[in-house]
Design goal:
Layout: H1 2-21, H2 33-44, H3 46-50, H4 54-77, H5 82-112
Helix pairs in contact: 1-2, 1-5, 4-5
């Protein structure tokens, strides 16, 4: 599951920057620097995700909630960006599911010892 989390989280960073920074209207706003700025918090948590550090994974999951809300809000309110927003929601859901699975594996391993 950690490989799924790593690559999906990396895809989310790239998608966030591409969607808000470079995709033309109506799919995205194409605001260049805005895409980079909104992907920056995700990028800051990448080291913790890549090394599968427990605190890094948990903090990243809290951060994912913001990106989930952003995607749902855009999908609900902006028909032109609906598909792009649903891609983001899907990536966030996969990442969050992987975080839950990793934490359950750790909990089971701790109970065995």
């Amino acid at each position: 599951m950690s490989h799924l989390l790593r690559w999906c989280y990396l895809a989310l960073i790239v998608w966030q920057a591409a969607w808000l920074g470079y995709l033309p209207a109506p799919v995205g706003p194409a605001l260049g620097i805005w895409g980079a700025l909104t992907a920056l918090p995700l990028a800051l948590m990448l080291r913790g995700i890549w090394l599968t550090q427990p605190n890094g994974i948990n903090w990243a999951s809290y951060l994912l909630i913001f990106y989930f809300m952003l995607g749902v809000g855009e999908a609900w309110s902006n028909p032109g960006q609906r598909l792009a927003a649903l891609v983001q929601v899907s990536l966030v859901c996969i990442c969050f599911t992987a975080v839950v699975a990793i934490n359950l594996e750790r909990k089971r391993a701790a109970q065995k010892h």
